[in-house]
TrEMBL record:
Protein name: L-alanine-DL-glutamate epimerase
Regions that span the bilayer: none
Mandelate racemase/muconate lactonizing enzyme C-terminal domain mapped to chain residues: 148-244
Lineage: Bacteria, Bacillati, Actinomycetota, Actinomycetes, Pseudonocardiales
Keyword Cytoplasm on entry: no
Length: 362
């Protein structure tokens, strides 16, 4: 049988592996929300989502008080039905970050169960489009780092075989951003990708101004230049520059992605499996992007996105920004600058239960 008999929820705090700063915030900690679903045939699937320092206890409360009890007695195979029912039961708080993060923790656990039952890895069961994808680095490009540190990190990333690196922008003047990026470009040469990320820190006018200064540096994409709700502003920016505009990290529904794609305001989609509400909506977004001939380069969560990006035809890049090392035993396999998705059945994440118990806060 496949009836859900038990749902366990946990909150674990993980310290960042490096100091992470951007134009709007500092990554304080990863509050990792874990959900384990058990069925009457003895299978257990574990999923998760995260915050970058606040709200984790609120997500946990939403799961414990409202979502988890509604799962008992459901057929774990009915993932679409469960997702729709869960969304409907939280309609008063959807769409938004806390609800999406809660839905994602449940949905990824159900997908883990689906893959375990089928004895297939996630990347294949969700589509199997690629057996590997290129990786770019983010860990060496934070805004607090000096120009010299950015250059050294970029040179190291290139020497390791990674295909590019992302650098935070949003210094007080455009000149400071350009000076930093130009030094990196000179160090790594013309055939290595440089991405930039403003973390929603700019006005429409300033984003247009800065994008033009990036064009001569052959920037691969300009990420989150404006607040995510400003579809019209992103469209104006996209029409004004040759630099592709990347969005998705702070978008929490399939419908909002549809607005961007239909308007032509997104050149690259960066859908985040936790923030969009799980694997079920993630796949809808990825296939919608494919229909609009737009590539997908997911945000964060590389341990999940390695499988998901490889599952879909639109998969483009996986972001190298490790965070689960302290509570897992399954490092990703990266060869010649490409990540190879896990081949083990399930999500491909081997959880370290002892470490989780030590770091558990709720």
């Amino acid at each position: 049988m496949t009836t859900i008999t038990k749902v366990d929820t946990r909150l674990v705090n993980i310290e960042p592996e490096a100091l992470r700063t951007d134009a709007t915030q500092t990554f304080v900690r990863q509050e990792t929300i874990l959900v384990t679903v058990e069925t009457d045939d003895g299978l257990r699937g574990t999923g998760y989502s995260y915050t970058i320092g606040t709200g984790g206890s609120s997500v946990l409360a939403l799961l414990r008080d409202h979502l988890a009890p509604t799962l008992i007695g459901s057929d774990a195979r009915d993932i679409e039905a469960i997702w729709a029912k869960s969304l409907a039961s939280t309609r008063a708080t959807a769409f938004g970050a806390l609800t999406s993060l809660a839905l994602a923790a449940v949905d990824t656990a159900l997908w883990d169960l689906r893959c375990l039952r089928a004895e297939e890895p996630l990347w294949r069961l969700a589509g199997g489009a690629h057996d590997r994808l290129p990786v770019y680095d983010t860990e060496g490009g934070w805004l607090h780092l000096t120009t010299e540190e950015l250059v050294a990190n970029a040179v190291k990333s290139r020497a390791s075989g990674l295909r590019g690196a992302k650098f935070k922008v949003g210094k007080p003047t455009a000149g400071e951003d350009v000076e930093r990026l130009a030094a990196v470009r000179e160090a790594v040469g013309p055939d290595w990708e440089i991405m930039v990320d403003a973390n929603q820190s700019m006005t429409g006018a300033e984003a247009i101004r800065r994008a033009r200064t990036y064009e001569s540096l052959d920037i691969a994409w300009f990420e989150e230049p404006l607040p995510a709700e400003d579809v019209a502003g992103h469209l104006r920016l996209a029409r004004s520059t040759t630099v592709p505009v990347a969005v998705g990290e702070s978008i929490y529904s399939v419908g909002h992605f549809a607005e961007y794609l239909a308007a032509g305001a997104a050149g690259i989609v960066q859908v985040d499996v936790a923030r969009v509400g799980g694997i079920t909506p993630w796949l809808k977004v990825a296939h919608a992007a494919e229909a609009f001939n737009v590539k997908v380069a997911p945000h964060f969560l590389m341990e999940l996105h390695a499988s998901l990006a490889c599952a879909v035809p639109a998969g483009m890049y996986v972001e190298h920004i490790p965070q689960l090392g302290s509570i897992t035993r399954s490092p990703l396999r990266i060869e010649n600058g490409c990540v190879i998705p896990p081949k083990a059945p399930g999500l491909g994440i081997e959880w370290d239960e002892d470490a989780i118990a030590n770091l558990r806060v709720a």
